[in-house]
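Subject: Diaminopimelate decarboxylase structure
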Amino acid sequence: MNHQDLTNIAREHGSPVYVYDAEVIIAQYERLVSAFAKAKQLRVHYAVKALSNISILKLFKQLGAGLDTVSLQEVELGLVAGVDPKMIIYTPNGVSLEEIEKVAAKGVQINIDNLSILEQFGSKHPDVPVCVRINPHVMAGGNANISVGHIDSKFGISIHQIPHLLRIVENTGMNVNGVHMHTGSDILDIGVFLYATEVLFETAAKFKDLEFIDFGSGFKVPYKEGDVSTDIEELGEQLSERFNKFCDDYGKDIALAFEPGKFLVSEAGHFIAQVNVVKQTTSTVFAGIDSGFNHLIRPMLYGSYHGIKNISNPEGRQRFYSVVGYICETDTFAQNRQIAEITEGDLLAFSNAGAYCFSMASNYNSRYRPAEVLWHNGKSHVIRKRETMKDILKNQEVVELELATELAE
């Protein structure tokens, strides 16, 4: 997609709008599969939480991917998209036993990350295969909010609790068919990640009926020109070799599984917004757009970087702007960012807007959530309509209160 394609989409469908390039998604999926071509069995479960539009889920189904889900609702979305429940893994955190049982009844692979629920589920449903999520206590992620391998993380069963885990499995007679880990997002140091996998291999060897080992994901994508990212080809080469050796030692071939989200969809996404006002203050030039952190919260939530280009004036003179939204509190997308000269009415395109962007959008300030558009073979397809006031009011119930006379007066 080029600047003109994005401009045409914004003119046709209005702004703000999310746009996803299907060819980029397909290329990223093929790149991952190619990197692990030496693995005897490979499972790729797309992380639904990154971008849950049902058209995106159907695309991954066509590519041969399964789904990684974290809620009953994500599971149901996957089933509506036509994904085989056996191709869906469910890895919740802190949910009720009741929800886990509802998902298990749908034939989905369960992944349990705490001893309490593991014992309860195993006691009631010993014949249902279960994966266990291990915390290797290896920090491989970036921002503290997305690095989940530390000792005090709420995620996973500590490797120091393995004896207790094994005792629960023995006492309940439950079937553990997989082990799983996730160290966090934005993994750069392959050596650290591979060290974590050794911890997982050591744990996996303690279970005799495994069908797969799931290494999570968290692969870093580049956010700006010259940015570093996970060397997926090098990781694929090294981990595949080590995994095949584990299978030989284990005595049977099992599947190597991953659950990428950001890696597959982040770079495919663009968020386009129009500049409402250019405002000069004593020290700053603000470009105020027709959106806010209700549509794209990541910069305000944990300081994420999104490249911003003026697609209405891509060759213009570079000037410095703070790009801000219309929410009535601090609402900053970028501070003192160098962007081609901006005029009111220009369209700005935010890059890396495919993952964790629309999925975290809200109706804060009673604003409508934007449309989503999928670009494929040179054509744009609306995959979610822009909301209207009807959507805002849909589930609200009007209650007429009778106030006391003195209050009414």
